[in-house]
Structures are given as C-alpha cells and as structure tokens.
C-alpha cells in the first residue's frame, strides 16, 4: 500500500464518518427537539433538525448537506411512523442541503450574507416542496397552507442559530 492509496482511504473514511455523524445529529435534533403547531390541517412541525443540516452544508459542502438532510430527516419520518412522507422528505430536504451547500461554496462575498441567502433559498425549497407534497397526499390545494408557518419558522430559527456560528466552526474544523 502506498501513501497515495492510504491518503485516499483516510479521506473516504473521514467523509463517511462526517456524513454518518450529521445524519445522526439531524435525526436526533428532529426527533427529540420538536413542537407540533396547532394550525389547520397538518399544522406543521417545528424542529431543530435543520441546524445540523445547515452546519453540514456550510462547513462540509453540498454533498454532506444533501446526505444529512435526505437521510437524516427521511430516517426521522420512517422512525416516527410517517413513512409515507419519507420519499418526499428525502427529495425536499436533500435538495435543501445540496442547494444551501452549493450556494455557500460558489457565492462570493461576505459569508454572513452568503449563508443568509442560502438559508432563504433552502426555506423556499422547503415551503414549495412540502406544499406540493401535501397537495399530492391530501388531494387538496387549501389544506397545505396550514403547514407553511411551521416550515418557515423552523428554517428561520435554524438560520438564526447557525449563521452567527458557522464561520467560526468552519475555521476550526477545516
């Protein structure tokens, strides 16, 4: 085994461990730190699972953000008895993590502004994605409006927590 092969294997192992860690953090933050909103229809769920998702995307990039979001929150749906939602969550939240990480990687400028734009775009993906998912699942164009406040609040809350700290985390980790 030469040094190049060993370095590649070490990088693959590190990536695997980081991805697994953020999947687990996303599941735990979604499962155990949540509040169901008493709003019409589905109402929405406020949880802190978007915090590890955004940290993964901003610190480790779009692939880790997508993996943490898709698998972490998809697994939450399965473990919580909402398996019907898992395919939608996998796509929607995976897209959130990917796009947030992509914007953080590619956009020039002050990181606070870049991270803020990435959070806003991720929020739009979540709101539109879950609205469409609920239309499909409920066969109703009105009822899904009830979950929009919860979706907005959980992403805004995550942004408020993550944006001030993620640049510091990134400096220490990488």
Automatic annotation (TrEMBL):
One Pfam assignment: ECF-ribofla_trS
Superkingdom: Bacteria
One CC-aspect GO term: membrane
Ranges annotated as spanning the membrane: 16-39, 82-100, 112-132, 152-169
Source organism per UniProt: Mesobacillus subterraneus
Name of the protein in its database record: ECF transporter S component
InterPro entries in alphabetical order: ECF_substrate-spec-like
Gene3D superfamilies in the record: 1.10.1760.20
Alphabetical UniProt keywords: Membrane, Transmembrane, Transmembrane helix
